[in-house]
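Quick log. Single chain, no ligands specified.
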Amino acid sequence: MTQMMFRPETDTRPQVVSTITIPEQADAAHHVDVTVSEPEQPADHAGEHLLLVASSGGHLAQLLALRSWWQEFPRTWVTFDTEDARSQLAGEDIVFAKHPTTRNVKNLLRNSVIAAKLMRDVRPTMIVSTGAAVAFPFFLYAKGMHVPTVYLEVFDRVDSRTLTGRLCRPLASEFLVQWEQQRALYKGSRVIGTLL
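-> predicted structure:
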């Protein structure tokens, strides 16, 4: 098991430390068990707020697979305004990003404005994303604001790097992959096994 400690460096709020425990290898069934512990924080996770960022569809499905980890935390979702996203996130705090995002400069700029506003208003203590391009402006702002980020590369791209993976790798506090073959594509990444 690997434990990662995230400590926001330039935050005026009370210091919050998040510990994420990630297995070094997936078990035989390729199941990943990600747990979070807060040894010095009350059970209500006071002062913490997750920003969960993912395109709708498969990217969102992979982030939803981590429910046992994020369900205990106050959170805001960023995804696209689609029927499946509305259905899967019913009752959640959702901010809809602009799409399409793949190689779309106009929507990149629009999503950068959304990211700046959310970073200011929500003040997340951690950003977690499974991509795709919607993640990039959030990771960029998070890097500048010293907010820890976790990027989980998609499971269906094994033999080459994704554009978003290439952009977010230098910005991510932790970069996770789901296959051993992906680890060779992203220096310093960790294999956690498949989520779906």
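The chain has one domain: 2-191.
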